[in-house]
Amino acid sequence: MQGKTMVVGLAMLLGACGEEPSDDGSLFSTGGGITTPGTSGSDDSTGDSGDPDPSTSTMTSTTSPTTTSTTMPPPDPDTSADGPPPPPPMECGPTPVGGADPLIDDLELEAGQMEPDHLIPSIDGRVGFWFTYNDGSAGGTQEPPDPFTPSAGGADGTDHGARTWGNGFDAWGAGMAVSLNNDFSGDCPYDVSAYTGIGFWMQGTGSVRMHVSTQATVPPELGGTCNAAPGMCHDDHGVDLAAAGSWTYHEVRWNEMTQQGWGQAAVFDPGTVMQLHWQVPPGASFDVWVDELVFLTD
User: Fold this and answer.
1) Residue 248 belongs to domain spanning
2) Nearest Cα residue to 57 out of 84, 30, 19, 76
3) Residue 272, SS3?
4) pTM for this prediction
């Protein structure tokens, strides 16, 4: 069985602004995924979130790669003598292996659905959900709230897309993410070795870092194997993209992605993917949409 740790929505995984990541454990998410110390995670945001550290809180939630400011990770759970003890390591079952169907999520209604929701389609062993996350800056605002709800008006004339917007986050920023193997008891790995990358449509403003969390960049209490010092996990592999004002198709291949270099070094392993993230840097208003997510086979 998967463990009980919720994600703060990668929320904690990301972060950034060219500074060393904070180790005080402060991080907020609006979804499920990653959680932060001292709070309890909600069942729909993995928060993983940017890439914050989870424990029990929720986060508040191609074109060629371009360079943007460094994205910092969410703080690790408080392990000091005065703080709460970290949750136990995640316990995951056999890793589901993808390869039969490349669709991740088109954000449209499924058979029998009356309204769109935060859950991804149950395809090829995948089970997960969308969530938002942010650095918890005072005065910062982010939509949508938890649980995540797709917005009307998707890519290429479709009905819905994943969207997050807001402003006022000055530490490492904010983002939205989707988990691939989380039944609301905690994030576990999903094997995407059969694929070469991910394709998706995106529109918005400013810089967006698309990054992929794997067990090697996630701490043990969140289901990973990163045993680095506080603030040194969540340096995911990814690319920096420039969002356009109209829907634009992007393809990001595993072999194009790199870490930003502020955290523990790790080799990207497509057999241990946990979450997909779209994160914005600190200091600016943001409005980012993504839609029609698929794995690439060539």
Assistant:
1) 9-75+100-296
2) 30
3) helix
4) 0.75
